[in-house]
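Hi again,

Forgot to attach this to my earlier email, sorry! This is the prediction with arginine bound. I've pasted everything inline since the attachment limit keeps bouncing my files.
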Amino acid sequence: MRKSTQLANRVIKTIGCANGLGGRQLGCENAVEVIKKSPFMANVAKRLDIQWGPIIEEVNTGRHAKALGGVTQTCRQLAHHTRQVIENKNELLVFGGDHSCAIGTWSGVATAMRPIGDIGLIWVDAHMDAHTPETSDSGNIHGMPIAHLLGFGDKNLKRIGDRLPKILPHNLCLVGIRDYESAEQELLEKLGVKIFYANDVERRGITDIMQEAQYIVSRNTVGFGLSIDLDGFDVSYAPAVGTPAADGINAMEFVKAMLMIDMTKLIATEIVEFLPRFDDSNKTSEQLVANLVEYIYKTKHFQLDSVIEIAQRVGRSEEIQQKISQSL
Ligand SMILES: NC(=[NH2+])NCCC[C@H](N)C(=O)O
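Structure tokens for the complex follow:
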């Protein structure tokens, strides 16, 4: 068999995290079962090789600040599974859950990649999610994953997998930000994290912003992750979220932008904060989840196959394929 055909056939290992106790409103814990049964996802699965793995059930120790213990245990389990998928050199796709699951997802990915190098992360969101338990007014852990991934906040939550920060500030980019508190902004600015606010997106267009973000998260890393909070998008494309914010990213422009950015170093994707009971009668948000998966992975696979094909023509395919499999 030609190696290009082998590479074209990529399995996407999918993990669900049925968590919602870190959110402002309950309901994100139902997202995974809705996505798993979704006819829109079934359609996508005809064109992409999506294989469902475990669904992690959350540990309940209470809501708001009291959720901390439970979220830590849930994230530990999730990190165990995401780490395994990456160590087995598979594509990884995670469906949350509220955004606190990101601590689990990226702790697992970062520790799996640690022997090779640092990972980058593009965080698409209306919010900065950069509180620590000390600075948060709401106590909701879905407002805290970025701080913990950077090595701040609760000592157990920031030390899942290993004791090191999971993402370094210069390898992180936030995109679409428009609703935040000053303590979060101060922390991120002090650390030098690149923030693309919603008005930057408005001014420059999402393609330009995503291209720069991809460059930033790739230049000092072995690859990057994509964490997509549905509330990053305008509510007309993603009504089913628990913490909506006006004037979000145009989702159609975003999926088109996917075609224009270099996805060959994408290590894993996470889609979170889908709250099914708030979806409209057309299931607009559910459709968006399916569209995101399709555009992201078709683009990535197409780009990888193109690289292989060109390399074969110029007689360097062995070397290039080796590089690609190392980076996966
Ligand atoms: N992942 C989210 N939806 N985060 C919203 C956070 C909202 C607010 N900043 C808080 O900390 O409570």
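The CA atoms of residues 200 and 318 lie 41 Å apart. The chain has a mean pLDDT of 95.

That should be everything now.

G.
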